[in-house]
Structure formats: C-alpha cells, structure tokens
Fold:
Amino acid sequence: GENVEQHPSTLSVQEGDSAVIKCTYSDSASNYFPWYKQELGKGPQLIIDIRSNVGEKKDQRIAVTLNKTAKHFSLHITETQPEDSAVYFCAASKRATDGLTFGKGTHLIIQP
Amino acid sequence: DAGVTQSPTHLIKTRGQQVTLRCSPKSGHDTVSWYQQALGQGPQFIFQYYEEEERQRGNFPDRFSGHQFPNYSSELNVNALLLGDSALYLCASSLYEQYFGPGTRLTVT
Structure:
C-alpha cells in the first residue's frame, strides 16, 4: 500500500519568513495530494490540494509543488503569520474521494 | 450551511465494551469516510461508505464496522474495545475533496 513520509516533524520560523514542508510517497498510482491544517482540538482543515496533471498550484500565501518523477510534493507558506501556527499534514490517494494515506505531520511554530 | 458534524464530542468506555459514533455529512455530500487519529500521529483510514455500502477499507480489524443511512449520515461501531482504541475518531464527507468534522475523542480505560 501507499506510504507517505513527511519532514520536518517540527519547524520554527520567524514571523514574515517562509516555511517549506516536504513529503514523499511510494505508490506511483497516486494522483491526488491534499494538505490539511489541524489546530488544537479541531479536525483537519483542507487548505490546498494538487492533482498529478499539475506541477504547481497557488492560493494567496500558500503554494504546493509536485514532482511525480521523484514522487515528492511540498507545501510553501510565504509571509508567515501567527495564525499559521498549527500541525500540517500531507496526504496521498489515487482519487480525491479515496481513503487518504497521511504523513505524520509537521508542527509549524511561528515566532513573533 | 453546516459543515460535517460528529457526536458525541467525548466519551469514556471500559475495555471490552462497545461504542457507536455518529457523523452527519456536509450538505450535498454523499460519501463518508472514517479515520482514527492517535495522539501525535496522522489520521489512519478505517473505511468509506457510499450509497449505503462499504466501498473501501483500510487495515483495521473486523471489530470496526459501520453503516450509512439513506440521508448519507453514518455510524462507526467498535466492539470489544481495547486500550489501544483510545484516539480521536474523525469523519470526513466528500463529493470530490474530503472535509473533516471536529472528531470524537474516545478514551478506553
């Protein structure tokens, strides 16, 4: 089955700087790669996703890149703000409606 | 428009007991997936329901079972609870992308 590795497990950045979180996956049949943000005591919130026919996708301060050949994808957050502090999860599946395989998460800390 | 809702918020059960968790999907969504999230880990896929049938299943024992009703709401049942079943149980509904509810925190003592 699919295996998703996520790095780093903890990332501390200064407010206003950029943050990058990286994931690798094992199943070449995976075509859908979402990113979720989870705040304390809440369920994961979908923040951006990318499908295998696209190399990059942006939404305001958030961007995701995908390299299908190398089987890795990354989340980029620019101009970080205190409200960006949370745990971020990457995931992979064959289709958006399939069961997702998640990474172990990255705890992003924004230092004032 | 209400998002995904789950009940109860928290519950405490004793080892060996049975538990039922409930999920109401986001309006217009016809597919419900259940995930187990242990402390400090990513969610793990349990199973998915579509048109009242189990469509996909992750690597969980038969003690975990579910049901989907005609209104698309869903239940997760866990029999013969083990201490290791203590976790946050998340429901996600989808038409295309999956949207998660707030979860039910289950503690098994």
Observations:
- Chain B has a mean pLDDT of 97.
- The interface with chain A takes residues 4, 31, 33, 35, 40-45, 47-48, 56, 58-59, 90, 94, 96-103 of chain B (CB under 8 Å).
- Chain B has no helices and eleven strands.
- The first strand of chain B starts at residue 5 and ends at 7.
